[in-house]
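WARN retry 2 of 3 for item q-0093 after timeout on previous attempt; input resubmitted unchanged.
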Amino acid sequence: MALLVPAALAQETKVYQEGGKWAQEIKGSLGTSRNLHVKVDLGSVRVEGGSQSGITYVIRTHAYTSSEQDARRQFEAYKVSASLKGDTAWIVADWQAGSRPKKFSGDFVISVPTNMEFVKVSTQGGSVSAKGITGRVDTESGGGSISLDDIGGQIAAETGGGSIDVGKVGGEIILRTGGGSIKVASAKGKITAESGGGSVVVLSGMQGATVETGGGSIQVDRCAGQLRATTGGGSIDLGDIGGGADLETGGGSIRLTSAKGPVRATTGGGMIDLGSVPSARAETGGGGIVARFVSGTDRTDSTLETSAGDITVYLASDLNVTVRAAIELANGHTIRSDFSDIAVRSEGGQWGPKTVTAEGKLNGGGPILKVRTTTGDIIIRRASR
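OK item q-0093 returned
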């Protein structure tokens, strides 16, 4: 068997007028192959897995000119080739005659067997989509959107500025966009998602996740492992986290339903609301803090601190903890506690600076919980079951 088949096994081409533009349609097949590489200068690419045994493709290019002669020159300048090299099928399209016209488009639709081992797609400007592949998929676009769904293996997707939308994936996920939004519906592997400024949404992750955006919001509904979420200024909204969580925003709010491990939450000025957590280090430059502490195996010392705002702490009745709380400028503010074991004291006169502190051990004491606000109330509540 020849190692290199320079052209498609079967291919047909036709040129026809379509409204006010001309279209070229290329249909072909490439037989069977374990891998597919698609590399095009311009145009959208769609790869669809199915029950067929070989690779087939339909390529449509459009020249926005009234002259058939001009259109054919443009079609000839955008050379499209399909070939087999070993166990890899190649579909390549590159512009070969000077500068490209402003109005010229391409659309590549490729049907492949669903059991492909590796699919790689690269386009300099169009959108990319892939669906129904059991193996690994790598995609790259100079600025278009990327959509991937029903992928069994690892995926990697990168675009200069478009959005990335991921459905169900069985392996690790690595996603990067220069500024578009990112959404992941379900991933069994670890998630890495980075955007220069768009929002990031993860509905379900079965392992850990690292999520970053230059300024957009972050939403993670469920993550079974460790989570790291960072945004330059957007809000962070989290559901149930199976491990610890490291959260940071330049100024947005932070909300967390629950985490099985320690939590670090930092914001330049927004509110922090932590649901059921074993321990936490939370700091905000100007918002309030609400934290609910529960018993757990991964408990360490905790700190809650804000420059200006109220802090409300909920403690489980069976929690062994040592509480140390303070309001630095307490004029008009106070500490209230549901626990008689926590003693509240105040210092300072009516006309001078006033400081209020509270300290006590619950259930014999345990990891230290430090609560501090410069100006605001501190409320320590007994959590209801």
